[in-house]
Design goal:
The protein is mostly helical. The protein contains 6 helices and no strands.
């Protein structure tokens, strides 16, 4: 039984409630067993058994949900490590672009890496003039690849891209 289809994700209160129910069922069973086996009614034993099975089933669902959460957390951590590595690489490239273009203004820009794919960005502008000629849709794609999807105005998009590429002259 999938926790996503059958029941809501567990909360601290639902786990506490299940623990309370399991303890109650166990106490009922222990109490019944304290008496002679002949004194245990068949109906009481079946009821207690069903309670325990229902609780164990829910505990299994909670374990599945916890496993999914842990897996997603591990994937998120791996993605964060990759994004950080890309940002570090882009920082190095930004510095190289800055030094190269400040001494040789017509030198081509080195491509930055996408935080989405981890690869060099395709069709990355090779110069300030190419950035200036880039249309709004292309700027949106480039900035989204660099982790800046919410820049609104076209001129601000161009300035942001220039700064991210290491071009300091953004007039």
């Amino acid at each position: 039984m999938s926790p996503n289809k059958q029941s809501p994700p567990p909360t601290a209160s639902s786990v506490s409630e299940l623990s309370r129910q399991l303890a109650s069922a166990a106490n009922s069973l222990a109490s019944a067993l304290d008496h002679s086996p002949e004194a245990i009614s068949h109906d009481a034993a079946i009821k207690t058994s069903k309670q325990i099975n229902n609780i164990l089933s829910r505990v299994g669902e909670i374990k599945e949900t916890c496993d999914i959460i842990l897996q997603r957390q591990e994937e998120f951590d791996e993605d964060a490590e990759k994004r950080n590595a890309v940002r570090e690489m882009n920082s190095i490239i930004r510095k190289r672009n800055y030094h190269a273009t400040s001494t040789q203004p017509h030198r081509p820009l080195e491509r930055l890496y996408s935080v989405v794919t981890g690869r060099p960005i395709e069709h990355f502008p090779k110069s300030t003039s190419e950035i200036d000629a880039t249309n709004s849709n292309q700027l949106n794609r480039l900035l989204a690849d660099l982790g800046y999807p919410n820049v609104k105005h076209e001129e601000q998009k161009k300035i942001t891209l220039k700064l991210l590429a290491g071009i300091c002259d953004v007039e």
